[in-house]
Amino acid sequence: MNIVIIPGDGIGPETMQVSVDLLQDANQVFGLGLNFQHEIAGHDSLQRHGATVTDALLATVKAADGLLLGPMATYDFKDESKGEINPSKFFRKNLDLYANIRPAKTYPGIKTLTGPFDLVVVRENTEGFYADRNMALGHSEILVTEDVAISMRRITRVCCERIARSAFGLARQRQKRLTLVHKANVLRITDGLFLQACADVGKDFPDVVVDDFIVDAMMAHVVRAPERFDVIVTTNMFGDILSDLTAELSGSLGLGGSLNAGDHHAMGQAAHGSAPDIAGQNKANPFSQVLSAAMLLAWHASRSNGKPQYLAAAHAMEQAVSDCVAAGECTRDIGGKLGTHETGLALRRRLKAA
Ligand code: NAD
Asked: Are 340 and 282 in contact (CB under 8 A)?
């Protein structure tokens, strides 16, 4: 498997280094035959190539078997005409990575506000309110006058059906429960279309029990009793917000592993951003990026040409995270005393000892 590695901005280089070191160990232990190609995007690329991402980089990623993308300082990238393109959007759109899979679960050893839970947020990734990706040409945020602005949300049957199918398929592999999250009481047409598409796809999954919640009430339900949820499917922005909440409820945003997957490509990228407040201080929790890397290996194993040892390696990486947490070998955000680098060394010891 050829993996393109892009460290990203802020804490990205620190957390990505831990992930690559662990992947290299997994490569040896499980005989995976991994090859890494190191590339840049974001601020580094803007400085060197005049753009945060380039067509040549896209071609490189398309030719590879997977991408590990670090967090990006998206908020800094305001003007596409100056090469300031949101790299996360760039890959999601150009590789059609429509399913953003964001698991969140509690670990024994981390103090949380809730009881134990284990759920997955499945977020549509290619349309919705995200103004930089839902038009063929142009931008769906419009400044009408200096004081009037409009933002448009695109919802299409095809995108709803494919994200629903991903979520139903995942629910079938888990507890066979799926929750639809929407705002169809107000966004009657767009979220009505989302709900109808989910209902239509659901006919192929009669074994999956479905319920639904309005997004605002969902925030209360998921804080009050996250254990009642198994797989949750929703549109782009609701999923973006909800998955940060569920990651934080599990102990920290630094536990938020995430996979962006389409029919032909996949990208492992932690759910959080570049965390400039702790960048370069050896404080970032690397588990989110490590779990994202494990998800990329598991995705590869599920492909028609996938090999079972990739799944074994993914499980071993997840187990190394659990073992480190249980032993308190982790960063301060989840109650440990280690730095990012030292947590990485602990992960490597755990993986090799398993
Ligand atoms: P953030 O997710 O970077 O940080 C939010 C909070 O969580 C901060 O207190 C941060 O220190 C903490 N945090 C995040 N990751 C952590 C980790 N691994 N370990 C420990 N603590 C962690 O959100 P922000 O500060 O609003 O955004 C910073 C930049 O990231 C912005 O430019 C934003 O646009 C961008 N962003 C990028 C992505 C992405 O690349 N996928 C996602 C979200 C935000």
From this structure: yes
For the domain spanning 1-96+271-354, the CATH number is: 3.40.718.10
113-249 shares the fold of 1-96+271-354: yes
CA of 87 to the centre of ligand 1 (A): 15
Neighbours of 1 (CB within 10 A): 21
pTM more than 0.85: yes
Using most ligand atoms within 8 A of CB, pick from 253, 277, 285 the residue to mutate for ligand 1.
Answer: 253
According to DSSP H, which parts of the chain are helical? 12-30, 43-49, 55-63, 87-94, 157-173, 190-202, 215-224, 236-249, 287-302, 308-326, 340-353
Q: Pick the atom of ligand 1 nearest to 71's CA.
A: 40
pLDDT band of residue 189 (cuts 50, 70, 90) is very high
Q: Which two tokens stand for residue 83?
A: 């090469």
Predicted pLDDT at 330: 98
